[in-house]
Request: fold
Amino acid sequence: MSWTDLAVLKPLLLPPGVLLVLALAGLLRGTRAGGRLAVVAIGLLVTLSLPITARILMTWVEGEWSGQGGEDGAATVGAPAAIIVLAGDYRSFAPEYGEATVGALTLTRLRHGAYLHRKTGLPIALSGGGTPPEHRPGLAAAMRITMERDFGVPVRWVEAVSRNTFENARETTRILKADGVSAAYLVTHAFHMRRAVLAFQAAGLPVRPAPAGGVRRTTELRAGDFMPEPSALLASAHAVHEAVGLGWYLLLPRAQPMTGR
Reply:
């Protein structure tokens, strides 16, 4: 059984799910130790809900990629010949459209990809899969509809079979290299960029990061930074997810070069 097969368990293995499970387990034990476990879990949940915590975690996980465009890029990457936009999330049904569509994360990435296309004139490659067959359109198709219909930007390549970032990189690299593309801009969220770049390096395609949605770097503190907010908990959860994912890629053999697999 692979990590991908266990993806359904991720909500219980990462915050806030894992903390709620620990708190419930502690309360159900009915012992002093169980009570302490519940208090610690709830305390961590509250801490992750603070904007100051979310900002610290996001700043760390984003590293040097803080959402500052990517057209200047890294000097070590050759001239990009395409713009890759990675999927982020998916709405299995949107009542306002009467069908499935992209989620908020994916929409942010598509918008930045469209912006970069207008600045560079480079063709667009969309990468996203893993949606159940009963959902129509699938994630990659929904990305294409949004990019072409809503942003007015043509799409040249669509990769629709990947289930995770590593497969995004492998399948997109295969498609682009078959069409003679040897380097590309990579559009994803700043918090996801480090892991995405690692995946594309392993796949053998040089990419120039073009991050979207980075946090604002500031040392200014406000009273609201210490008040729990749902959006802060979501940001902290994204940061923890990326930290775990990055560790997984770095520690396991699957993070080694996989060209030709």
